[in-house]
Predict the 3D structure of the following.
Amino acid sequence: MPGFEQEREFILIDRPLNRPLVFVQSLRTASLCFVALPILSIDAGYRLSISGEDLDVLGLDPSRQPHVGNDVACLAIIAIGEDRLMTANLLSPLVINLRNCVAVTGHSTELQLQPSASASQRRNGAGNARSAAARRRNPF
């Protein structure tokens, strides 16, 4: 993430009470957590365009753009200004390959997302993050 280059591993936390918000929690620094929204929940007509370099980092076919929801999840990081107004960064989204959990930001920063708690743990309230399989079925 720009400004946090030393942070390379994150987990997505999707809490039903906070939907559509998604929390991007650092595994290295417990106090570092970004708030994000699925881009399509902000702009249903959003068209993702990823460089060939980023497609390669993600492990995706460089001859075509990925489909948001099938190939990748696309999240906009939310910022809250001093005036308490919120903005969503649509120019530099967090793009996550749903098959291998590798992610990049619009600034070609590679991140690795970790698998989350099992489905049974989530049903029992022991874990609130979504598994890679669940994201493939419903990536936000």
